[in-house]
Every structure is written in structure tokens, then in C-alpha cells.
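Figure 6 in text form: structure in, sequence out.
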């Protein structure tokens, strides 16, 4: 016999039998068919938790499994009747969790909860905690998550009172089954499920506005100028194919103008004083402030909270932002979502443009190169969560791009997609880093640039890490030498270098022989709280370094003086400069 309970949001179907008293609410319909339960209760894009309850007879033996081994439960009978649970969360395989069962019917409740960098798997037997397994993740990685599964198979075991919730019950809730509090906790509004809207790439005449929608459907963006006149209105659809992400591309803007925006659709409306942006200047004038960072935690930190006070005109996430270390598309998407849900980012990105590139840990695995077998997943998730106008050759190869902000143009180099995929076009004895298309693009765009200052930025450093890994420009030294010689030959002024990756902040100043004037390299790393002393190596051109946790690089361009200046400041977690260097355009001219 089936008992059907109506709910205010959706309904849940219970398989009736004696045993566990279950709450009569749930997110999503849950139905047991042919000993299998469809998973519409664990939704890691919204909440990283669930409760799965059922009753079972201890005299029986058998296995409960998921279709992708996210977790499994082995039930044994006899004198040592018990239950053994094996979980496989993201990045970690747990030791089996073993608990004893009572004689007769047992009410089993499995609760998974992931928050911050910790996760807990808890088992209740007849309303009491019987076992618990904790999972810790390094701060720089996403919270451990169970590999997404679509079905639970109860095998030959006879189970009853099956139910599922999209959150984890605590001990008090299990004991009292307070339906009112459960219903309140279970209610997820459209705002709870939404990420953004945020500002992506902004230029003098165009801008990207991005959002991850709460559900599939059509959403309308409205952009207004300072006089409240509508200058752009566009309706786009959020689809499962793109993980519900939308990237509106607004055109025909005026340089240096302020705009506000709002989004509405499917019962969602987001607007307010915080949702605004300013288009950039296309000319060499005014002042500009850029913020760079690499190697980031996926949880709130004082460093992130300091960003709002720095008031950057644009934020560059320069690789390992976030750490993912996985090729599965769902894991990559999950990590990007968690990163962009960090509260301080959620506030500042409403009105501050952001773009980025990748390094090894958000492209693939440690020291990954262009041969990473799942890199098509990496580029898909990157395009979904980094709202830009261009990605590499715009044909599916690479993510290199350039962004002009008044008197400075940043050339964001992709140091992963093409690396090690073939021979260098400069020297066939070496592997390529840039690849032929990116090499040609970089030379063409550098030569055409009219910006006073030009920053060549990538996730790796421009010299030798002096360790066993190959992901630095020293590995591809012929391409680096050819690039520098070409800059010198073409007499391109205002060039500086930027790198990340090594968990050390460093400033190097190379002599004039490379490009015809002093060449500076700024290494900004890490945003998280872990440094690597062994990578703070000696170098004849090293001017300053610091094993400083939680750092960012702030670059201020002032084009109002007779000789325009570039000032680079290494910032700590309190938003204070720990070291600065300043140079003029005249000093960066051959």
C-alpha cells in the first residue's frame, strides 16, 4: 500500500511499512521503483547535503549502491549483524564506516553535509547516532562532495519507508521530527539558487554581464544609463547544457560612462544600487587600478574582504582560481560555483569587472599540459564561468585574450592549452608553450596596441622554478627568447611581465639587453594561506621577495602626469602594501 502526502512545493511518495517515522516533506519527488531510487534530492549546485532514510530487516543481507559508486552500503546478518558504508567524495576515498544493527527492523538514516572545507557523513540507527565519518579538504580546494549520482539501487534487500531530503538532518531534528522547522529549512528561494548577476569583461564600448540562473527558462537583462534611459535590453535562456549560466554581451556603450542593470524572469527580479558598472576609456588618459591574484582558497578570507576597500577597476583571476584538480565536468562546475559564491566576491563582482585565465590546478592536475585528456571539459566550464568577449581563437582552442582599460592593455596568455602539444615553431628541439596561433596572435596584437602600458600576464612564472616540474617559461626558453627579441626589434614600449603559481611574491628587474629597456616581472602568489619556501630561489635579477600568505598585486596607472607612471604594490590580507615599485613610461621606452 502506498501513502501519498501532499506538500506545498512538491510531493514525495513513501513506501509504507513499520519502522522509521519520516517527515512528510522533501525537495523533489522521491519514488522507489523496482528497488531503485532516482536521485532528485542531492543537488550540489544548490546545497551540498542530503538525508536518505529507509527501514531494513537485520536478518537480511545485501548491498545498496549508487550507479557511479558515490557510496555503497553492505548489510550483513547473523550474530554480527551490521552495516558497512563506503563513501567516495570528491578527491577522497573514505575508510569504511562500520556500525552494528539491532535485531529485527532497523530504521536507517544516512546524512551527508558539506560546508566550508569540511564534510560529514553520519549514520543514525533507530533515531540515534551510530557512526560518523569526517572529511577534511585543503582550504584551497572545493569542499569534498559526493560524486554526483543519478540512482540508488537497493539490490535484493527489502526496504521500506524510503524518503529523501535535500539537506542533512541533525540529531535533534531526527529525534523530534519538527516538520515546521524542516519545511522552513527545506524552502529554497530563487535568490538562494542564483549566483550573480556579476560584471564580466568591460571595454570602452561593450560589457559582459553574467549570471547563473536558479532554473531553466528565459531571463531579461535591462541596462540603463545615468539618466535612467534604457540603452540595452535582451532576453536569453538558461539551459542545463551551459549549467544554467548566461553571458549577456552589451554593445554600443559610450566610453567612461556609468550604467546600472537589472535582471528578471521566472519570478526572479534582481536590481538595486549595487548593480552598476562604468565603461572604460579607449584612450591613454586618466587613472586606472587593476588587481591580480593567483592560487586561491574556496572559502571566505580577510584577503577577499579587503578587495572592496581597494576599489579596483578590474579583477584578474590568474590561475588556480579556484583549485579543482579534476577532469569531470560536474566537479569543475561545482568548484567554479563555490568560488563565485564566496560572500565577499558576491558583493564586489556586482559592480567590478572580472576576467581570468587558468593554471594547472584549474586546467587539469598539477603540472598539467595541453595533453590533459579532459581539457575539453576544462574549457567548457571556464567559458561558462568567465564572462569574456573572446576565448583563444574562438574556435574552441585556448582561452588567451586581451583587455584594454584606458592607458593599459593586458594580454592574458594561455600557458596550458597548447603546451607540450607539438614542436615549438621557434626551435623544433623544444616543445611549444604558446602554439602557433597564440604566438601569431600575441605578436599581432602587441604591435597594434596603442596603450601606453602593456602587461603580459599568465599563470606561470617567466623564469626557472628550479624544481622537477616543467610548467615555467624556462622549459620553453626558445619561445621566450624569440618573444623578447621580437619586442626589442619592433621597439614596443611599456611592456611588463606578470606571473603566479609558485606561492611566493617576487619582483624581478631584468637588464636592458632583453627588450631594450628594464623589464620587470611581478609574481603575485598566493591568495591562500600556504607558501613554498623552496620556490623562493636565488636569481641575479631578483629585487624583492616575500614568503607572505594571502597576497594580491595592485597595479596603478596614472596617465595624468607628463611622464605617465605604473606603480605595482604587493598587498597583504589587510589591504596594506608590503612592497611597492614605481616606474615611468619614459623608463620603459627603448
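Output sequence:
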Amino acid at each position: 500500500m502506498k501513502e501519498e502526502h501532499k506538500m506545498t512545493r512538491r510531493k514525495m511518495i513513501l513506501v509504507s511499512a513499520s519502522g522509521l517515522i519520516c517527515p512528510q516533506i522533501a525537495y523533489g519527488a522521491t519514488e522507489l521503483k523496482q528497488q531503485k531510487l532516482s536521485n532528485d534530492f542531492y543537488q550540489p549546485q544548490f546545497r551540498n547535503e542530503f538525508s536518505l532514510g529507509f527501514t531494513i530487516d537485520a536478518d537480511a543481507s545485501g548491498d545498496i549502491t549508487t550507479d557511479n559508486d558515490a557510496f555503497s552500503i553492505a548489510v550483513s546478518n547473523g550474530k554480527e549483524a551490521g552495516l558497512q558504508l563506503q563513501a567516495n567524495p570528491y578527491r577522497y576515498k573514505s575508510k569504511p564506516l562500520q556500525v552494528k544493527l539491532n535485531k529485527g527492523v532497523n530504521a536507517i538514516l544516512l546524512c551527508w553535509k558539506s560546508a566550508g572545507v569540511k564534510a560529514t557523513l553520519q549514520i543514525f540507527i533507530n533515531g540515534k547516532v551510530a557512526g560518523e565519518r569526517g572529511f577534511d579538504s585543503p582550504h584551497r580546494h572545493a569542499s569534498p562532495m559526493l560524486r554526483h549520482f543519478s540512482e540508488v539501487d537497493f539490490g535484493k534487500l527489502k526496504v521500506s519507508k524510503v524518503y529523501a531530503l535535500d539537506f542533512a538532518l541533525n540529531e535533534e531534528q531526527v529525534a523530534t521530527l519538527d516538520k515546521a522547522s524542516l519545511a522552513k529549512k527545506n524552502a529554497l528561494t530563487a535568490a538562494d539558487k542564483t549566483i550573480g548577476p556579476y560584471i564580466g569583461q568591460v571595454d570602452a564600448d561593450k560589457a559582459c554581464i553574467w549570471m547563473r540562473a536558479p532554473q531553466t527558462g528565459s531571463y531579461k537583462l535591462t541596462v540603463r544609463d545615468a539618466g535612467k534611459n534604457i540603452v540595452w535590453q535582451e532576453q536569453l535562456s538558461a539551459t542545463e547544457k551551459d549549467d544554467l549560466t548566461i553571458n549577456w554581451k552589451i554593445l554600443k556603450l559610450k566610453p567612461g560612462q556609468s550604467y546600472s542593470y537589472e535582471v528578471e524572469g521566472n519570478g526572479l527580479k534582481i536590481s538595486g544600487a549595487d548593480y552598476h558598472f562604468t565603461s572604460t576609456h579607449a584612450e591613454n588618459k586618466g587613472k586606472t587600478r587593476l588587481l591580480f591574484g593567483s592560487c586561491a582558497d574556496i572559502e571566505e578570507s580577510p584577503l577577499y574582504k579587503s578587495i572592496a576597500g581597494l576599489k579596483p577597476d578590474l579583477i584578474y583571476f590568474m590561475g588556480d582560481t579556484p583549485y579543482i584538480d579534476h577532469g569531470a565536468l560536474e566537479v569543475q562546475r561545482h568548484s567554479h560555483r563555490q568560488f563565485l559564491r564566496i560572500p565577499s566576491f558576491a558583493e564586489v563582482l556586482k559592480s567590478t569587472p572580472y576576467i581570468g585565465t587558468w593554471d594547472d590546478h584549474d586546467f587539469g592536475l598539477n603540472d598539467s599540459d595541453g595533453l590533459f585528456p579532459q581539457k575539453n571539459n576544462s574549457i567548457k566550464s571556464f567559458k561558462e564561468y568567465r564572462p569574456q568577449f573572446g576565448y583563444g581563437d574562438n574556435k574552441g582552442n585556448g582561452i588567451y585574450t586581451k583587455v584594454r582599460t584606458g592607458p593599459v592593455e593586458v594580454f592574458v596568455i594561455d600557458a596550458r592549452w597548447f603546451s607540450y602539444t607539438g614542436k615549438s615553431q621557434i626551435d623544433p628541439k623544444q616543445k611549444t608553450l604558446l602554439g602557433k596561433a597564440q604566438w601569431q596572435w600575441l605578436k599581432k596584437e602587441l604591435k597594434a596596441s596603442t596603450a601606453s602600458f602593456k602587461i603580459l600576464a599568465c599563470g606561470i612564472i617567466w623564469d626557472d622554478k628550479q624544481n622537477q616540474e616543467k610548467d615555467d617559461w624556462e622549459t620553453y626558453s626558445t619561445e621566450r627568447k624569440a618573444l623578447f627579441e621580437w619586442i626589442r626589434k619592433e621597439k614596443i614600449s611599456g611592456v611588463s611581465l606578470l606571473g603566479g603559481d609558485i606561492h611566493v611574491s617576487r619582483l624581478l628587474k631584468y637588464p636592458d639587453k632583453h627588450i631594450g629597456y628594464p623589464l620587470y616581472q611581478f609574481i603575485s602568489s598566493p591568495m591562500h594561506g600556504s607558501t613554498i619556501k623552496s620556490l623562493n630561489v636565488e636569481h641575479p635579477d631578483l629585487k624583492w621577495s616575500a614568503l607572505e600568505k594571502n597576497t594580491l598585486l595592485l597595479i596603478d596607472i596614472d596617465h595624468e602626469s607628463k611622464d605617465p607612471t605604473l606603480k605595482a604594490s604587493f598587498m597583504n590580507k589587510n589591504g596594506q602594501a608590503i612592497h611597492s615599485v614605481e616606474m615611468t613610461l619614459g623608463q620603459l621606452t627603448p
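Caption detail: The chain has ten helices and 35 strands.
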